[in-house]
Amino acid sequence: MSAIKAKVEDAASSAKAGTEKAKAAAGKKVEKATTRDLMKKREAEERKEDRKLEIESDERVDKAGHGPEKTVTHTVEE
């Protein structure tokens, strides 16, 4: 059951990261379209890339915490 829960949480994390990436891309496009200054366009592109890397990192951290909990008990018999 915990494996199913982990998969669902992973899917939710991926969906959330996807929407955040889409928001970042849309924001960049709006800023790029409304800005005439070339330097500002480059800065907007760099911020978008930084935000994308941050989102992907957060997604990996989220997924790492979703793994099924494993408990191992060892018994020694003589």
Automatic annotation (TrEMBL):
Q: Where is this region: Disordered?
A: 1-78
What biological processes does GO assign it?
Answer: embryo development ending in seed dormancy
The source's superkingdom equals Eukaryota
| Compositional bias (Basic and acidic residues) | 1-10, 18-78
The UniProt family comment states: Belongs to the LEA type 1 family.
Q: What is this protein called?
A: Protein LE25-like
Q: Which organism is it from?
A: Panicum miliaceum (Proso millet)
